[in-house]
Design goal:
This protein has 13 helices and 23 strands. Strands 21-22-1-23 form a four-stranded mixed beta sheet. A four-stranded mixed beta sheet has the order 2-14-16-15. The protein folds into two domains: 2-19 and 230-416, Enolpyruvate transferase domain (UDP-n-acetylglucosamine1-carboxyvinyl-transferase, Chain), CATH 3.65.10.10; 22-227, Enolpyruvate transferase domain (UDP-n-acetylglucosamine1-carboxyvinyl-transferase, Chain, Alpha-beta prism). Helix content is 29%, strand content 28%. It is of the alpha+beta class and 421 residues long. The protein has helices at residues 22-31, 48-59, 85-88, 98-105, 124-132, 163-173, 189-201, 232-245, 260-268, 307-313, 335-339, 370-381, 402-408; strands at 2-7, 12-17, 38-42, 63-67, 70-74, 107-111, 136-140, 143-147, 155-157, 180-183, 203-206, 212-218, 223-227, 247-254, 272-276, 278-284, 294-295, 320-324, 344-348, 351-355, 364-366, 386-391, 412-416.
């Protein structure tokens, strides 16, 4: 258990560099299992999810080492094709190892994944994609067994643009005979990063960033080196922290094109936002106004992961702010905790209405999940007096040095307890 101590009332000023992307590095780590190539990844954040992925590789018999922000992976001689329950439950995205194991071994044994409790997140689309590629799948109590003596190219129409299902299909298709076409594919920047890595490994793959991705074979290479791009949700987090506390902050190594809906919404609220490649500046003074309705959608729409942070930034706006959540039914679990700060929030199914208040006060809060926990920290920066955020490891799953970065901007924040990575 970590306890985050936050004393609000300090405006944020200065600059910080944005960490490498959590959601980009995890599927790349899993995809390194595809063949015996050596992989070197730079700009890798120190996160519990990243360490869990590395532990899975080590369990499977691969070499996985860290030196600063560089991960070196050797997958020449993996020795097993199962992932035990304790490792699977350390992160939701552990399901991304299904496709690589099936491609490398023709077999995969896993338990049901863990991660944040954000409502039902079935892996049916992952399994259907693998079935279309020729896998036989048995769902047993608490576990899944995938087997395929031979994978064959197929047309894979996804009923939803699932990021994880798209990634699993892309990776598994590299080992399939013939062409694979994925329709209604997820379009997130992390999909483009995975495509870049698969190409470096020797895959013939195209279309990432569009709704149709094609995979046409794989000739493994000996080495692949890739720099992990900046984390767009971490960048959105620091922008929303500034919106909560006020101030002037420069984000370095940020990619504004990847978070355009967040920047547009903050501008609509009255924040002064300027952006160019690799840099975003935000200036916040005075009380902000409510934006138009914030509706979460698959990329390039407003990201669901940024919605809790934006909600925190709206707690003191003039007028009501409306949020409509279309991705996760359990996304609003942080709202009750925000009310402890004095926020006025009404929830009706997928709709949340935030009526801005004049001021917030410190309180004891409990983090419900990764982004909800970060939203509580952000809101506490804009409250009067001290707050405590009790967190069972969620925040460190997604943020590398959150408290140090915020302290560097002038925030009064420190964290006790919890494992550091």
């Amino acid at each position: 258990m970590s306890i985050w101590h936050v004393t609000g009332g300090e405006r944020l000023r200065g600059s910080l560099r944005i960490q490498g992307s959590k959601n980009a590095v995890l599927p790349v780590i899993a995809a390194s299992l595809l063949c015996s190539s050596e992989t070197e990844l730079t700009n890798c954040p120190r996160l519990s999810d990243v360490e869990a992925a590395m532990d899975i590789l080590r369990y499977l018999g691969c070499q996985a080492e860290r030196d600063g922000d560089v991960l070196t992976i050797g997958s020449a001689s993996p020795s097993r094709c199962d992932i035990p329950r304790d490792l699977m439950h350390r992160m939701r995205s552990s399901v991304i190892f299904l496709g690589p194991m099936l491609a490398r071994f023709g077999e995969a044994h896993v338990s049901v994944p863990g991660g944040c409790e954000l409502g039902p997140r079935p892996i049916d689309l992952h399994l259907q994609a693998l079935r279309l590629l020729g896998a036989e799948i048995r769902e047993e109590p608490g576990g899944i067994v995938c087997q395929a003596a031979r994978l064959r190219g197929a047309e894979i129409p996804l009923t939803l643009p699932s990021v994880g299902a798209t990634e699993n299909a892309m990776i598994a298709a590299c080992a399939a005979e013939g062409e694979t076409v994925i329709y209604n594919a997820a379009r997130e920047p992390e999909i483009e990063t995975l495509q870049e890595y698969l190409r470096l490994l020797g895959a013939q793959i195209s279309g990432a960033g569009s709704p149709v991705i094609r995979v046409n074979g794989f000739t493994p290479r000996e080495h692949a080196g890739l720099r992990i791009p900046p984390d767009r949700i971490a960048a959105a987090t620091y922008l929303c922290c500034t919106a909560c506390a006020g101030g002037d902050v420069d984000l370095l190594d940020a990619e504004p094109d990847h978070m355009a809906p967040v920047l547009e919404t903050l501008e609509a609220m009255g924040c002064a936002v300027t952006a160019r490649p690799g840099h975003v500046h935000i200036g916040v003074s005075g009380r902000l106004r409510a934006p138009g309705a914030v509706v979460t959608r698959p990329y390039p729409g407003f990201p669901t992961d940024a919605a809790p942070l934006l909600m925190a930034a709206c707690l003191k706006v003039t007028g009501p702010a409306v949020f409509i959540e279309n991705i996760f039914s359990g996304r609003y679990r942080h709202a009750e905790e925000l009310r402890r700060l004095g926020a006025d929030i009404t929830i009706r199914g997928p709709l949340a209405m935030v009526t801005g208040v004049e001021s917030l006060h410190g309180a004891n809060l409990t983090s419900p999940d990764l982004r909800g926990g970060a939203a509580l920290v952000a809101a506490a920066l804009g409250a009067e007096g001290p707050s405590l955020v009790y967190d069972d490891g969620h925040i460190r799953r997604g943020y590398d040095g959150l408290e140090e970065s915020l302290r560097g901007l002038g925030a009064q924040i420190w964290c006790e307890g919890g494992e550091r990575y």
